[in-house]
UniProtKB/TrEMBL annotation:
Transmembrane regions listed in the UniProt entry: none
Coiled coil ranges: none
Database matches in Pfam families: FAD_binding_3
Species in which this protein is naturally found: Maritalea porphyrae
Domain of life: Bacteria
Domain FAD-binding: 3-307
The protein, known as: 2-octaprenyl-6-methoxyphenyl hydroxylase
Length: 381
Protein backbone atom coordinates (compact mmCIF):
# COMPACT_ATOMS: atom_id res chain seq x y z
CA UNK A 1 0.00 0.00 0.00
CA UNK A 2 1.34 3.49 -0.87
CA UNK A 3 0.76 6.61 1.32
CA UNK A 4 1.47 10.32 0.90
CA UNK A 5 3.03 10.58 4.35
CA UNK A 6 4.34 8.03 6.85
CA UNK A 7 4.55 9.43 10.38
CA UNK A 8 6.75 7.34 12.67
CA UNK A 9 6.28 7.71 16.44
CA UNK A 10 3.22 7.78 18.69
CA UNK A 11 4.41 10.39 21.24
CA UNK A 12 2.85 13.85 21.42
CA UNK A 13 4.58 15.27 18.34
CA UNK A 14 3.86 12.19 16.20
CA UNK A 15 0.18 12.05 17.16
CA UNK A 16 -0.24 15.80 16.53
CA UNK A 17 1.54 15.66 13.15
CA UNK A 18 -0.27 12.54 11.90
CA UNK A 19 -3.65 13.96 12.84
CA UNK A 20 -3.04 17.39 11.26
CA UNK A 21 -1.69 15.79 8.05
CA UNK A 22 -4.75 13.51 7.79
CA UNK A 23 -7.10 16.45 8.43
CA UNK A 24 -5.54 18.13 5.37
CA UNK A 25 -6.68 15.24 3.20
CA UNK A 26 -3.34 13.46 2.90
CA UNK A 27 -3.22 9.69 2.93
CA UNK A 28 -1.34 8.99 6.17
CA UNK A 29 0.18 5.85 7.69
CA UNK A 30 0.95 6.39 11.37
CA UNK A 31 3.36 3.97 13.05
CA UNK A 32 2.50 4.29 16.74
CA UNK A 33 3.52 1.29 18.85
CA UNK A 34 1.76 1.17 22.24
CA UNK A 35 3.88 2.35 25.16
CA UNK A 36 3.57 2.66 28.94
CA UNK A 37 1.67 5.69 30.27
CA UNK A 38 3.74 8.90 30.20
CA UNK A 39 3.65 10.32 33.76
CA UNK A 40 5.43 13.53 32.78
CA UNK A 41 3.72 16.91 32.63
CA UNK A 42 4.50 19.77 30.28
CA UNK A 43 4.44 23.48 30.90
CA UNK A 44 3.37 24.85 27.53
CA UNK A 45 3.75 28.57 26.88
CA UNK A 46 0.92 30.75 25.53
CA UNK A 47 2.14 30.77 21.89
CA UNK A 48 2.04 26.94 21.99
CA UNK A 49 -1.41 26.98 23.63
CA UNK A 50 -2.56 29.37 20.87
CA UNK A 51 -1.25 26.96 18.22
CA UNK A 52 -2.94 23.96 19.87
CA UNK A 53 -6.23 25.86 19.88
CA UNK A 54 -6.03 27.36 16.38
CA UNK A 55 -4.99 24.02 14.83
CA UNK A 56 -7.84 22.21 16.62
CA UNK A 57 -5.48 19.96 18.64
CA UNK A 58 -7.18 21.25 21.80
CA UNK A 59 -10.58 22.01 20.31
CA UNK A 60 -10.51 25.35 22.13
CA UNK A 61 -10.49 23.52 25.46
CA UNK A 62 -7.70 24.31 27.92
CA UNK A 63 -9.78 23.37 30.95
CA UNK A 64 -7.59 20.44 31.91
CA UNK A 65 -4.44 22.57 32.14
CA UNK A 66 -3.37 24.63 35.17
CA UNK A 67 -2.50 28.26 34.44
CA UNK A 68 1.05 29.40 35.23
CA UNK A 69 0.78 33.01 36.30
CA UNK A 70 3.93 33.51 38.32
CA UNK A 71 7.45 32.12 38.42
CA UNK A 72 9.41 32.36 41.67
CA UNK A 73 13.15 31.68 41.62
CA UNK A 74 15.05 30.99 44.84
CA UNK A 75 18.83 30.54 44.83
CA UNK A 76 19.25 27.69 47.32
CA UNK A 77 22.97 27.17 46.71
CA UNK A 78 25.73 27.68 49.27
CA UNK A 79 27.82 29.47 46.70
CA UNK A 80 29.92 32.53 47.23
CA UNK A 81 27.78 34.58 44.84
CA UNK A 82 24.04 33.93 45.12
CA UNK A 83 21.30 35.40 42.98
CA UNK A 84 18.54 37.45 44.66
CA UNK A 85 15.10 35.87 45.01
CA UNK A 86 12.90 36.87 42.07
CA UNK A 87 9.18 36.73 41.30
CA UNK A 88 8.00 37.17 37.71
CA UNK A 89 4.35 37.86 36.90
CA UNK A 90 2.64 37.11 33.57
CA UNK A 91 0.60 40.32 33.92
CA UNK A 92 3.70 42.07 32.57
CA UNK A 93 3.33 40.18 29.29
CA UNK A 94 -0.24 41.48 28.95
CA UNK A 95 -1.58 37.92 29.27
CA UNK A 96 -3.33 36.21 32.14
CA UNK A 97 -0.74 33.41 32.23
CA UNK A 98 2.72 32.54 30.88
CA UNK A 99 1.18 29.26 29.81
CA UNK A 100 -0.52 26.12 31.15
CA UNK A 101 0.75 22.99 32.82
CA UNK A 102 -0.70 19.78 31.31
CA UNK A 103 -0.42 16.09 32.06
CA UNK A 104 1.17 14.54 28.94
CA UNK A 105 -1.39 11.71 29.03
CA UNK A 106 -4.27 14.27 28.90
CA UNK A 107 -2.64 16.02 25.95
CA UNK A 108 -2.24 12.70 24.15
CA UNK A 109 -5.95 12.00 24.67
CA UNK A 110 -6.92 15.43 23.29
CA UNK A 111 -4.55 15.20 20.29
CA UNK A 112 -5.93 11.76 19.38
CA UNK A 113 -9.54 13.01 19.01
CA UNK A 114 -10.14 13.40 15.27
CA UNK A 115 -12.57 12.07 12.73
CA UNK A 116 -9.97 12.32 9.93
CA UNK A 117 -9.06 8.90 8.51
CA UNK A 118 -5.52 7.57 8.79
CA UNK A 119 -4.06 4.11 9.07
CA UNK A 120 -2.66 3.47 12.54
CA UNK A 121 -0.07 0.72 12.73
CA UNK A 122 0.72 -0.53 16.22
CA UNK A 123 4.23 -1.74 15.42
CA UNK A 124 7.86 -0.68 15.71
CA UNK A 125 9.51 0.35 12.43
CA UNK A 126 12.56 -1.83 11.80
CA UNK A 127 13.75 -0.46 8.44
CA UNK A 128 13.33 2.68 6.29
CA UNK A 129 14.93 2.85 2.87
CA UNK A 130 14.89 5.42 0.10
CA UNK A 131 13.24 3.98 -3.05
CA UNK A 132 11.96 5.41 -6.34
CA UNK A 133 8.49 6.38 -5.05
CA UNK A 134 9.81 7.83 -1.76
CA UNK A 135 10.42 5.47 1.14
CA UNK A 136 9.93 1.76 1.84
CA UNK A 137 9.11 1.09 5.47
CA UNK A 138 9.06 -2.26 7.27
CA UNK A 139 7.97 -3.12 10.78
CA UNK A 140 9.35 -5.64 13.26
CA UNK A 141 6.21 -7.77 12.80
CA UNK A 142 6.72 -8.03 9.03
CA UNK A 143 4.39 -5.34 7.62
CA UNK A 144 5.58 -3.20 4.69
CA UNK A 145 4.31 0.07 3.21
CA UNK A 146 5.72 2.83 1.03
CA UNK A 147 5.24 6.59 1.31
CA UNK A 148 6.23 9.66 -0.69
CA UNK A 149 7.22 11.57 2.46
CA UNK A 150 8.40 10.39 5.87
CA UNK A 151 8.21 12.21 9.19
CA UNK A 152 10.42 11.00 12.03
CA UNK A 153 8.72 11.67 15.38
CA UNK A 154 10.38 8.66 16.97
CA UNK A 155 12.15 10.29 19.89
CA UNK A 156 15.76 10.71 21.03
CA UNK A 157 16.98 7.39 19.58
CA UNK A 158 15.24 8.03 16.26
CA UNK A 159 15.62 5.23 13.74
CA UNK A 160 14.37 7.57 10.98
CA UNK A 161 17.18 10.04 11.75
CA UNK A 162 19.91 7.43 11.97
CA UNK A 163 18.78 5.32 8.97
CA UNK A 164 18.40 8.29 6.63
CA UNK A 165 21.79 9.88 7.24
CA UNK A 166 20.80 12.87 9.39
CA UNK A 167 23.90 13.77 11.42
CA UNK A 168 23.40 14.21 15.16
CA UNK A 169 25.45 15.00 18.23
CA UNK A 170 24.49 13.62 21.65
CA UNK A 171 26.03 14.65 25.01
CA UNK A 172 25.09 12.62 28.09
CA UNK A 173 24.98 14.39 31.47
CA UNK A 174 25.61 12.93 34.92
CA UNK A 175 22.26 14.46 35.92
CA UNK A 176 18.80 12.94 35.78
CA UNK A 177 15.32 14.36 36.30
CA UNK A 178 12.94 12.87 38.84
CA UNK A 179 9.23 13.54 38.33
CA UNK A 180 6.34 12.77 40.69
CA UNK A 181 2.97 14.22 41.66
CA UNK A 182 2.99 15.65 45.19
CA UNK A 183 0.40 17.21 47.44
CA UNK A 184 1.65 19.87 49.84
CA UNK A 185 -0.14 21.22 52.90
CA UNK A 186 -0.21 24.64 51.25
CA UNK A 187 0.87 25.96 47.85
CA UNK A 188 1.34 29.28 46.09
CA UNK A 189 -1.56 29.14 43.64
CA UNK A 190 -0.67 29.15 39.93
CA UNK A 191 2.98 29.84 40.78
CA UNK A 192 5.88 27.73 39.59
CA UNK A 193 8.55 27.74 42.33
CA UNK A 194 12.14 26.92 41.35
CA UNK A 195 14.82 26.26 43.98
CA UNK A 196 18.22 26.43 42.29
CA UNK A 197 20.73 24.02 43.84
CA UNK A 198 24.36 23.31 42.91
CA UNK A 199 23.43 20.15 40.96
CA UNK A 200 20.24 21.39 39.30
CA UNK A 201 16.89 23.04 39.94
CA UNK A 202 14.13 21.57 42.11
CA UNK A 203 10.91 22.86 40.54
CA UNK A 204 7.36 22.70 41.87
CA UNK A 205 4.88 23.25 39.04
CA UNK A 206 1.24 23.92 40.05
CA UNK A 207 -1.25 21.25 38.97
CA UNK A 208 -4.49 22.51 40.58
CA UNK A 209 -5.64 22.64 44.22
CA UNK A 210 -2.74 21.60 46.46
CA UNK A 211 -1.24 19.27 43.87
CA UNK A 212 2.09 20.03 42.25
CA UNK A 213 4.21 18.29 39.63
CA UNK A 214 7.77 17.94 40.85
CA UNK A 215 10.70 18.15 38.42
CA UNK A 216 13.89 17.56 40.41
CA UNK A 217 17.19 17.68 38.54
CA UNK A 218 20.20 16.34 40.40
CA UNK A 219 23.11 13.90 40.14
CA UNK A 220 21.78 10.59 38.81
CA UNK A 221 22.71 8.63 41.96
CA UNK A 222 20.88 11.15 44.20
CA UNK A 223 17.55 11.04 42.36
CA UNK A 224 17.82 7.30 41.73
CA UNK A 225 18.30 6.75 45.49
CA UNK A 226 15.36 9.09 46.28
CA UNK A 227 13.15 7.13 43.87
CA UNK A 228 14.23 3.78 45.39
CA UNK A 229 13.83 4.84 49.04
CA UNK A 230 10.73 4.56 51.21
CA UNK A 231 7.79 6.93 50.71
CA UNK A 232 8.47 8.48 54.11
CA UNK A 233 12.12 9.22 53.29
CA UNK A 234 11.11 10.62 49.91
CA UNK A 235 8.51 12.96 51.43
CA UNK A 236 10.96 14.21 54.11
CA UNK A 237 13.53 14.92 51.34
CA UNK A 238 10.92 16.95 49.44
CA UNK A 239 10.08 19.03 52.52
CA UNK A 240 13.77 19.73 53.09
CA UNK A 241 14.49 20.59 49.44
CA UNK A 242 11.53 23.02 49.45
CA UNK A 243 12.87 24.66 52.66
CA UNK A 244 9.68 23.60 54.55
CA UNK A 245 7.89 26.53 52.90
CA UNK A 246 4.84 24.47 51.96
CA UNK A 247 4.46 22.17 54.97
CA UNK A 248 3.97 18.41 54.80
CA UNK A 249 4.56 16.70 51.43
CA UNK A 250 2.55 13.65 50.36
CA UNK A 251 3.64 11.67 47.30
CA UNK A 252 0.60 10.91 45.10
CA UNK A 253 2.47 8.81 42.52
CA UNK A 254 5.70 6.89 42.46
CA UNK A 255 8.79 8.73 41.28
CA UNK A 256 10.05 8.32 37.68
CA UNK A 257 13.64 9.06 36.72
CA UNK A 258 14.76 10.32 33.27
CA UNK A 259 18.51 10.47 32.45
CA UNK A 260 19.38 13.81 30.83
CA UNK A 261 21.18 14.43 27.58
CA UNK A 262 21.60 17.05 24.94
CA UNK A 263 20.94 16.18 21.30
CA UNK A 264 21.51 18.51 18.39
CA UNK A 265 20.77 17.75 14.74
CA UNK A 266 22.16 20.28 12.26
CA UNK A 267 19.80 19.39 9.37
CA UNK A 268 16.19 18.34 10.10
CA UNK A 269 14.74 18.06 6.59
CA UNK A 270 16.00 16.67 3.27
CA UNK A 271 15.05 14.23 0.50
CA UNK A 272 11.37 14.28 1.49
CA UNK A 273 12.14 13.28 5.10
CA UNK A 274 11.71 15.53 8.15
CA UNK A 275 12.31 15.23 11.89
CA UNK A 276 10.17 16.66 14.69
CA UNK A 277 10.31 16.65 18.51
CA UNK A 278 13.01 14.72 20.33
CA UNK A 279 14.10 13.05 17.09
CA UNK A 280 15.39 16.53 16.18
CA UNK A 281 16.46 17.99 19.55
CA UNK A 282 16.63 17.09 23.20
CA UNK A 283 17.86 18.94 26.26
CA UNK A 284 17.40 19.02 30.04
CA UNK A 285 13.89 20.06 31.17
CA UNK A 286 14.72 23.56 32.35
CA UNK A 287 12.92 26.64 31.14
CA UNK A 288 10.15 24.30 29.85
CA UNK A 289 11.30 24.30 26.23
CA UNK A 290 11.30 20.70 24.85
CA UNK A 291 7.70 20.06 23.85
CA UNK A 292 7.12 23.75 23.13
CA UNK A 293 9.87 23.46 20.52
CA UNK A 294 8.52 20.08 19.33
CA UNK A 295 5.08 21.55 18.71
CA UNK A 296 6.66 24.47 16.83
CA UNK A 297 8.31 21.79 14.63
CA UNK A 298 4.84 20.33 14.03
CA UNK A 299 3.49 23.80 13.20
CA UNK A 300 6.22 24.27 10.55
CA UNK A 301 5.69 20.72 9.23
CA UNK A 302 2.01 21.57 8.74
CA UNK A 303 2.84 24.78 6.87
CA UNK A 304 5.29 22.81 4.66
CA UNK A 305 2.60 20.26 3.69
CA UNK A 306 -0.20 22.86 3.46
CA UNK A 307 1.25 23.82 0.09
CA UNK A 308 0.97 20.23 -1.22
CA UNK A 309 -2.07 18.62 -2.85
CA UNK A 310 -2.78 15.01 -1.74
CA UNK A 311 -0.97 12.62 -4.09
CA UNK A 312 2.03 15.01 -4.36
CA UNK A 313 5.21 13.90 -6.14
CA UNK A 314 8.61 12.88 -4.77
CA UNK A 315 10.06 16.17 -6.11
CA UNK A 316 7.41 18.20 -4.27
CA UNK A 317 8.15 16.24 -1.08
CA UNK A 318 11.87 17.00 -1.44
CA UNK A 319 11.22 20.72 -1.83
CA UNK A 320 8.86 20.74 1.18
CA UNK A 321 11.49 19.02 3.36
CA UNK A 322 14.14 21.57 2.41
CA UNK A 323 11.72 24.43 3.12
CA UNK A 324 10.96 22.86 6.50
CA UNK A 325 14.66 22.60 7.37
CA UNK A 326 15.22 26.26 6.46
CA UNK A 327 12.24 27.37 8.54
CA UNK A 328 13.39 25.46 11.64
CA UNK A 329 17.07 26.46 11.73
CA UNK A 330 16.82 29.76 13.62
CA UNK A 331 14.44 28.47 16.32
CA UNK A 332 16.41 25.24 16.88
CA UNK A 333 19.74 27.03 17.28
CA UNK A 334 18.34 29.78 19.46
CA UNK A 335 16.38 27.48 21.80
CA UNK A 336 19.13 24.82 22.00
CA UNK A 337 21.74 27.49 22.81
CA UNK A 338 19.49 29.12 25.41
CA UNK A 339 18.78 25.89 27.33
CA UNK A 340 22.37 24.63 27.11
CA UNK A 341 23.74 27.99 28.36
CA UNK A 342 21.18 28.15 31.17
CA UNK A 343 21.84 24.55 32.28
CA UNK A 344 25.62 24.96 32.31
CA UNK A 345 25.44 28.31 34.15
CA UNK A 346 23.18 26.76 36.81
CA UNK A 347 25.66 23.96 37.45
CA UNK A 348 28.85 25.95 37.16
CA UNK A 349 31.22 26.13 40.15
CA UNK A 350 33.16 28.84 38.38
CA UNK A 351 32.78 32.10 40.33
CA UNK A 352 32.69 34.10 37.08
CA UNK A 353 29.62 32.13 35.90
CA UNK A 354 27.97 32.52 39.33
CA UNK A 355 28.56 36.28 39.11
CA UNK A 356 27.01 36.40 35.63
CA UNK A 357 23.95 34.47 36.81
CA UNK A 358 23.58 36.64 39.91
CA UNK A 359 23.86 39.80 37.78
CA UNK A 360 21.47 38.29 35.22
CA UNK A 361 18.72 37.55 37.78
CA UNK A 362 19.25 40.96 39.39
CA UNK A 363 19.00 42.66 35.95
CA UNK A 364 15.81 40.70 35.13
CA UNK A 365 14.33 41.72 38.49
CA UNK A 366 15.06 45.40 38.10
CA UNK A 367 15.11 46.25 34.37
CA UNK A 368 11.61 46.09 32.96
CA UNK A 369 12.38 46.14 29.17
CA UNK A 370 14.99 43.39 29.66
CA UNK A 371 12.47 41.34 31.64
CA UNK A 372 9.85 41.74 28.92
CA UNK A 373 12.38 40.67 26.29
CA UNK A 374 13.32 37.60 28.39
CA UNK A 375 9.62 36.69 28.78
CA UNK A 376 9.08 36.84 25.03
CA UNK A 377 12.27 34.81 24.44
CA UNK A 378 11.34 32.13 27.01
CA UNK A 379 7.87 31.85 25.51
CA UNK A 380 9.39 31.13 22.09
CA UNK A 381 8.46 34.44 20.42
C1 LIG B 1 11.28 15.27 33.22
C2 LIG B 1 10.87 15.99 31.97
C3 LIG B 1 10.04 17.11 32.07
C4 LIG B 1 9.69 17.81 30.91
N1 LIG B 1 8.93 18.95 31.03
C5 LIG B 1 8.65 19.69 29.93
C6 LIG B 1 7.90 20.91 30.04
O1 LIG B 1 7.49 21.33 31.13
N2 LIG B 1 7.64 21.62 28.90
C7 LIG B 1 8.10 21.21 27.68
O2 LIG B 1 7.85 21.89 26.68
N3 LIG B 1 8.79 20.04 27.54
C8 LIG B 1 9.08 19.28 28.63
N4 LIG B 1 9.78 18.10 28.50
C9 LIG B 1 10.13 17.62 27.16
C10 LIG B 1 8.97 16.81 26.54
O3 LIG B 1 8.50 15.84 27.45
C11 LIG B 1 9.44 16.13 25.25
O4 LIG B 1 9.98 17.12 24.40
C12 LIG B 1 8.31 15.44 24.53
O5 LIG B 1 7.58 14.57 25.34
C13 LIG B 1 8.88 14.67 23.33
O6 LIG B 1 7.81 14.14 22.56
P1 LIG B 1 8.14 13.39 21.21
O7 LIG B 1 6.82 13.03 20.61
O8 LIG B 1 9.06 14.19 20.37
O9 LIG B 1 8.99 12.11 21.64
P2 LIG B 1 8.58 10.82 22.52
O10 LIG B 1 7.58 11.17 23.56
O11 LIG B 1 9.88 10.22 22.96
O12 LIG B 1 7.86 9.88 21.49
C14 LIG B 1 8.57 9.10 20.55
C15 LIG B 1 7.70 7.92 20.19
O13 LIG B 1 8.29 7.22 19.10
C16 LIG B 1 8.12 5.83 19.31
N5 LIG B 1 9.18 5.12 18.56
C17 LIG B 1 10.50 5.09 18.84
N6 LIG B 1 11.14 4.32 17.94
C18 LIG B 1 10.18 3.88 17.07
C19 LIG B 1 10.22 3.04 15.92
N7 LIG B 1 11.37 2.49 15.46
N8 LIG B 1 9.05 2.76 15.27
C20 LIG B 1 7.88 3.32 15.69
N9 LIG B 1 7.81 4.12 16.79
C21 LIG B 1 8.94 4.39 17.46
C22 LIG B 1 8.22 5.65 20.82
O14 LIG B 1 7.54 4.47 21.21
C23 LIG B 1 7.53 6.92 21.32
O15 LIG B 1 6.17 6.70 21.53
C24 LIG B 1 10.15 17.37 29.63
C25 LIG B 1 10.97 16.24 29.54
C26 LIG B 1 11.34 15.56 30.70
C27 LIG B 1 12.26 14.36 30.58
Amino acid sequence: MHYDIAVIGGGLTGVAAARLAAERGHKVAHFAPKFAKDYRTSALMMPTVDFMKSSGLLAGDVAFGTPLQKIRIIDATNRLLRAPEALFDSAETGRAAFGYNYANSDLLGAFSKTSAKKRSINAVVSSIKRVGEGYAIETEDGRAVSATMVLGADGKKSRVRDSLGFLSHMTEFGQSALVADIEFERVEPETSVEFHYEDGPFTLVPAGDRKINLVWLDKHEIVAAAARGSQNEFERALEEKSHHLFGHAKALTKAFVFPLSNLSVPCVGKNGAMLVGEAAHAFPPIGAQGLNLGLRDVENFVSAIDELEPGFSVEMAEKASIRYDQQRQHDLRRTGGFVDGLFRSLLSDFVGAQGLRQTGVWALKTISPLRKFAFQFGMGN
